[in-house]
Amino acid sequence: MTRTHIAYLILIVLECAILVLGRPAMAAPKREKRPDLASVRGESRSPRIEGELPTRVAFLLRASQSVAERSLKRHASCRGLFIEFGTTAEEILPVIRYARASGDNGRRLCGRGNVSAYVGLGTGKTWICLENFSALNRYEAAMVVLHEALHHAGLSEWPVDPEAPKSSDINNMVRRACHL
Questions:
Q1: I need a surface site. Which of 23, 31, 36, 175 has the fewest CB within 10 A?
Q2: Is 90 exceeded by the pLDDT of residue 144?
């Protein structure tokens, strides 16, 4: 067995341990405030996570936001989804806060099985359905991040708004426009 094979095996074992243990993401130690170099370099910014999310979910959320930001940079059609609402994804994504879905709303919505996240109207938060979200790959999760960002931008959804598109239609629109 080569060193490369051993390294891959170690990574697989670590990933399995993280999935099994579901350890919460560790908060970074507080440091003195510095300029946001990611925005200067055009790099991905970490999503704003409130409370604790399991490590796997926090990692997937970061990876999916990076995929979403890359799609936005590469595809004008993806950026165009937000222009219709008089904003840009670059303005919306950094202000969205993500939190673990909980309470009656979380149990009701996440229990459906096809809901990976939902927007708390007027809260500025996207609530993450841990089990459903963690089952996604980073491209599917990026579609969810952009879908929910469109709600923050002002897109409503059926059945709350009978004239609005259904969730599946929004997902298809994001997949096509953002090449996900």
A1: 31
A2: yes
| Cβ neighbours for 171, distance < 8 A, ≥ 6 positions apart | 143, 147
C-alpha span between 67 and 32 (Å, rounded): 29
Amino acid at site 69: E
| Angstrom distance (rounded) from CA 156 to CA 163 | 9
Q: List Cβ neighbours of 131 (8 Å cut-off, separation of 6 or more).
A: 110
Of residues 114 and 145, more confidently modeled: 145
Nearest residue to 52 (alpha-carbon basis) of 19, 28, 20: 28
pTM of the full structure: 0.75
Integer Cα distance of 62 and 53 in angstroms: 12
